Amino acid sequence: VVVNPTSTQTISQYSFNTIPLLVSGSPNQVNAVYRFSQVSAGVDAMVTIVATEGGASVDIFDDNAISKPEGFSPKINVPANSTGLVEFRIAFVTAGDTSMNAQDTLFATAVDIDGGSTLKEIDEIDMGGGFSTYQMATPEILVTQIGTAFRGINVAGNEYPSIDTTAKQVMF
Q1: Residue ranges of E strands in 11-168
Q2: What residues pair up with 111 in beta bridges, in sequence order?
């Protein structure tokens, strides 16, 4: 995301509720590029699967069956008793084109960083800087800044069924 603090562009709401179209690569594999149309007025999002580690894989690129359709919700599989990750890059482009479309401000939320006795989820967002907030009064996650990225780690081990968007204590 390119940030231009001198621009007068208004802040937009983003919605990833269209069906993503595979534009290059193999489905759900590293280097696959998908386009979400009209995530905001005149803006498309190109989402690339950049890397996988630790045996992690993308089972469903955007799983709206159990999540909110307006969010980008990949279903990721990580082998039991291991630590794995999938890295995605989101580039905003002019709708129907591939020209970069700089966004002044982008609000992103990592949700469902829950767990259980054997699972502690981790989410990381790197937008080249910014700030992060979370419910420090009920700390079920620990958020730290690493360079320009923010990492939220589940520390409480409480599991919330499905994708629970009311569980603010496991969001940042």
Answers
A1: 21-24, 33-40, 43-53, 57-60, 75-77, 85-94, 122-126, 141-146, 149-154
A2: none
Matching residue, tokens 């919330």: 160
Tokens of 51: 């890397």
CB atoms within 10 A of CB 103: 19
> Nearest to residue 4, comparing CAs of 101, 82, 102, 107?
102
pLDDT of residue 6: 41
Backbone angles phi, psi at 168, to 5 degrees: -65, -25
Question: What pTM, to 2 d.p., does this model score?
Answer: 0.81
pLDDT (tens digit, 9 = 90+) per residue, 18-58?
999 999 999 999 999 999 999 999 999 999 999 999 999 99
User: Which of 112, 6, 104 shows the shortest CA–CA distance to 68?
Assistant: 112
| 105's tokens | 């401000």
